[in-house]
Description:
With 325 residues, this protein is an alpha/beta fold. It contains 12 helices and 11 strands. It has helices spanning 22-38, 51-54, 72-79, 92-95, 115-127, 170-175, 178-182, 193-206, 221-230, 243-249, 262-268, 308-321; strands at residues 13-17, 43-48, 65-68, 84-87, 104-105, 161-166, 210-215, 235-236, 255-259, 274-278, 295-299.
Amino acid sequence: xxxxxxxxxxxxxxxxxxxxxxxxxxxxxxxxxxxxxxxxxxxxxxxxxxxxxxxxxxxxxxxxxxxxxxxxxxxxxxxxxxxxxxxxxxxxxxxxxxxxxxxxxxxxxxxxxxxxxxxxxxxxxxxxxxxxxxxxxxxxxxxxxxxxxxxxxxxxxxxxxxxxxxxxxxxxxxxxxxxxxxxxxxxxxxxxxxxxxxxxxxxxxxxxxxxxxxxxxxxxxxxxxxxxxxxxxxxxxxxxxxxxxxxxxxxxxxxxxxxxxxxxxxxxxxxxxxxxxxxxxxxxxxxxxxxxxxxxxxxxxxxxxxxxxxxxxxxxxxxxxxxxx
Length: 325
């Protein structure tokens, strides 16, 4: 590739490789939309590595065909039909063993710059076109929020302010509930469940109009039971939402609260006010993208150093500054 000859051109048939992580796939979406913007008539297909993470791309107008697969033989069989294969998921080499197809891969992320921006800049170099501010946003599905119908079954008063707390993480989906008992305390990204419970209680005490919604995957239903037992009137959506459902849900919320996880990045694809809890993780690299004024990041040396009081104060301040429409 030379400066005058972009690597990806209109004549190419392009296969993109994503990952098994919802969050990592969300990071790819600005780059994929950028590619479609500049190659509007090209065949652009994508491989995701499991059903859950593939939900990010369902109904995306930027992709012609979405594949979900895990095996090297299936990958090689599909890839032979494309002139260019580009890997946007840095774990593909680890997750798929024994493939024969050559492809180019985005370089390792560097600290201090959002992953979404690094994906976008990488694609900019492949296409030979500059990035503009309008390119800097995540895209879930077709990018259009519609009313989340899952709330219709709950008796929600007009004055109630819905605050969503996401309790879990992708590790639970992969390794099951035992992870939370054996290894959760050693995970640098997770806040103790007991503190989320205390936060829910504190928010309701400070503002009686607050009603808590909790989300998570099916392997986190035991966490939901514990939360519901201790926080009254909780709306439990754990294991009941797809990526698009969660994106739609954000339009009904006054606030979203979570640690670094895939659902956090779904939230940052919307305009919902966010409180993000970060320990040693780089909060720029893995934080909301792009950063908006309704985003508040609490950063500490460890997750255990983040107090319930700090999270409560940040939440109440955002709800006051950005009242529900």
